[in-house]
Structures are given as structure tokens and as C-alpha cells.
Amino acid sequence: MSKTIRIGTRDSELALWQANTVKAQLEALGHRTELVPVKSTGDLVLNKPLYEMGITGIFTKTLDVAMLNGDVDVAVHSMKDVPTALPKGIVQAAVLPRANHLDILAFKGNEEFLGQREGVIATGSLRRKAQWLNRYPTHTVVDLRGNINSRLEKLDNNNWNAAIFAAAGLERIKLEPENTLGLTWMLPAPAQGAIMVVAMEQDEETRAACAQLNHEETAICTQLERDFLRELEGGCSAPIGALAKIDQDGVVTLEGVLLTVDGSQKLETSRSAPLGKHHHLGVECARIILRKGGKRLMNLLQGETANTQVFSTKKLTPDQLHRFDPSLKVASEDFIKISPNRIAPKLLRKKVKNAIFTSKNAVEALLTNVTAEELNFENIYCVGRKTRRLIQKKLGKVTHFESYAADLAQYLVDHLEGTEVTHFCGNLSLDEIPKTLEAANITVHSVETYKTKLSGKKVDDSVESVLFFSPSGIASYLKNNRANKKAYCIGETTATEARKHFKSVRVAKIPDVEGVISLVNEDYGQGRAQKEKG
Prior knowledge:
The strands form 5 sheets. A 6-stranded mixed beta sheet has the order 16-21-20-17-18-19. By secondary structure, the chain is of the alpha/beta class. Helix 8 (216-231) runs parallel beside helix 9. It contains 18 helices and 24 strands. The protein folds into 5 domains: 1-96 and 192-214, Periplasmic binding protein-like II (D-Maltodextrin-Binding Protein, domain 2), CATH 3.40.190; 103-182, Periplasmic binding protein-like II (D-Maltodextrin-Binding Protein, domain 2), CATH 3.40.190; 216-302, Porphobilinogen deaminase, C-terminal domain (Double Stranded RNA Binding Domain), CATH 3.30.160.40; 305-335 and 455-533, 3-Layer(aba) Sandwich (Rossmann fold); 338-454, Rossmann fold (3-Layer(aba) Sandwich), CATH 3.40.50.10090. It is elongated. Helix content is 34%, strand content 24%.
């Protein structure tokens, strides 16, 4: 080759390592090369997360411009940073053999925080954040930007438990900290661990030189992962993970995942095909995700909540969202946050003749303090079928349950064995049961097992109906919104509170989430029918 190949690269330590690797391999093949370092927007703007900058390819854009201007012949990138759609005129010229694809946790001190409710993890990646919160929902994730060196320095200088890095990056520049843990359960970014070389499409001489560096197996796997990403229409702003592998028998397997940013919703799939018949795997896996509810989830991720008709004050699962009439645009978010209280074990281990639970939250919070084996309950009474199921699974037999608190209170007045009860509740629990029982000369010992934090936000003006699942949810909603919508309530206790504020209140026939959804579908279906008839 007669000309010198000008290799464009970012000027971070990792980017230079990658560019020098390509430089050395091209020179070993007899080509002359020259490095041309260029600063990227991603390196220069460090005061906000990548997804808030509103563009994909933030680490490649500057080099794209340099190539199109003729300042460099090729560019070297971490392949996971490269948008699935390359600029017109620029093509993939080579993919080097993939290094370690894992995400790695660098932690301070010890790993005890992994088993604790509180933990602070640093990462600038929405994908890592979402998968971490899906596995550790009570932890806090803080933003972390900069090159590897500055991120490690920030970890040392801040009161964080750990930070997440790409293992390949740490290993390439030999900066792996002493305390690390490979996150084998976390799906990496599509093409993580691979290095991509791009060139101008019309520069056949340079492309031919770079083609000699191409690693076919890595190219196949990363292409499938990027097909998955492209079909989901996701970029830096969507928590998407994918990993393809080829086994010794020539079978290609692709795993893919899509999550909400807070990790509360996760859709995943896996498909395999023989090598040679593998080309469809990326698109097929993405379409499976979309059919499972991924389209609605992607709409939420991309901020397309304008014209939302129905808003739920409880985060709904993909299956629950899928139950709504397809014509309805639905959004959801948790308007209350639950935090368990620490309770003296001695208090919980003494014998309790009559225990009352009015929510799953009370059961779950109680079990963060003691094991089920340490509890000594003679009779357990509860409100709600799901609370009953949880108690039967975790604590034991339920003596009696009712769907509504008022009904349970009346049952206890008529049938209680003894004259005392212990009510496991939250700080905002209504006093309906205690008032009824105390009026009947039954002593109520209240044990506050959890605190409820109101964390509602302003909902879009287009919202017509709001779904409520507790009186606390109503209080949270009203902090930032007016009571000018239709209220759909899970049960009569919630509806009683709603009627104090809302003119139009509807109550589910069956007091569960699915019952509320059925009521919404029924009402909107009737409304459409009347409009069509008119």
C-alpha cells in the first residue's frame, strides 16, 4: 500500500490503547500508519449523563466529521459506542477479536452491602443502572462520568460502595482494582468488549488493508447484537443489553434484555440457530421483546407520554400493561416508596395471640427484621387476597381474611378470640380497624413496620383517568396534581378517601390490579360504543 493510513482516535488512555493496537497490527502487515488523536463531545462535556445530551454516537461524532472532511482515513472505536446506523459514506471495515465482554464491579471495603438494603453504586450507563436496580431495587445508583482513570479516582473520593466498569477497558490499560467482582448475571451492552474500525466506503485500498484484521466470529456475534439494538430503536437512552455466542458445535445463541430505567420492568428473551442460519436472530429476539410489551415500554423510555389517557400511581408490570385495551395510552409510576423500619427483635419474638396485616408491605417489612421461624403468631388475620397469599407462603396459615378493612374489623368484633390484637402497619395506615376494635373494647397494639414516602410527580394534562391503589397514593398524587380526573380505585377504603377530593370515583369489582384494569377497559369500551352510536 503506497499511502500512510491516518488512524483517527479519541485521546483518552483507553482509546489510544485501542488505536495503537490497530496501528501495530496494520504495520505488522506492512502498512504505514499515523495516529491522529481527536477530542470528542463525550470527553469534553462531563457535567451531565450521556442520555441527557440528546444524541447517540457521542463518542464517535467528532471522528465521523473528521473522516468525512478527509482529515483521517480510519477511526477506531469501542464498538459498543458506535450507533447502529453509520453516517452515509462510512462503513465497518473490521472488528478485532473480542476481549472480556463482562461488566465488572469495583468495590471498596467488602461485599457485605450486596446483602443489605442500603447500597450506593456509581455508573453513567442506563443499562447498568436498570439491571442493578432490577436485582437490588432498594439500592441507590449515582451518575459517574469521565475516563476510566477519573472514574476510579471518583470512586476512591466519594462515599460510594462500588462502581461498575467494562472489564475489557480495565484489563486493556491494566487498571483493574484489587477488589472486583465479575457481574456474570448482567447482560452487556451490544458489542461490548469489541473494537471496531471504520473507513470511508469509497476508499477501497484502506478497506482492503483493514479487512485483514477482521475476526469473523466476533463480527458475526456483534452484528446480531447490533441488529437487536437497531430493531428496538434504542441507543444510549435505552437500557438494552445483548450477548451472542457461538459454541463448539457451531450453534449461535443470542440473549437480549430491555428494561425501564428504574429496573422495575424487564423483558428478556433468548434464541439459538445453527451457524449459517443465524442471520435472523437479532431481529427475531427484538420482535419477541416488542410482542411481550416492549413497544409500550420503549414509548415510555423515549418520553412519548403526551396524550396519555390513563395514568397508574403504581408501577405496572409489562403483563399488566398488556391487559389494557390496545387503543388506550397508559403510563405508570410508583407514587409511594416503602422503607422498612428497624424493630427490636425482642419485641417480635414474643408470643402474639392475634396478628393483623392490612398490606403486603407490612409483611415484607416485618421479614427484614426477623425470620418467619422466629415469629410466634397464634392467629393471623389480613386484608386482601395477595396479602393472604404472601402470608401463607412466608409465615403460615391465615385464620381469616377479608377483601376490605372495614369487613375485617367487623369480623374481629364478632369472632375474635381474646381481647387484644397486634396490628402490623405503616406510618400512614388508616385508623379504620383500630377505631372499630377499640370502640368494641378490644385493645390494639400498633407496630409500625414501615414508612411510606410520598413521591408523586406532575402528570400530563392529557390524562383523563388516574388509578389508585391506596389512600397514600391519593395523598401523593394530590401534592402536585388537581383532583380533576376520574379516579379508579382498587377497593372501598381507597375509594372512600378518593371521594373526599374527586367528583368521579369508580371502584373495582375485584380488589386487585387486574380488577382495576378490567373496570377501565369496560368504561372506555362503553364510551367508545356510545360515541360510535352517536
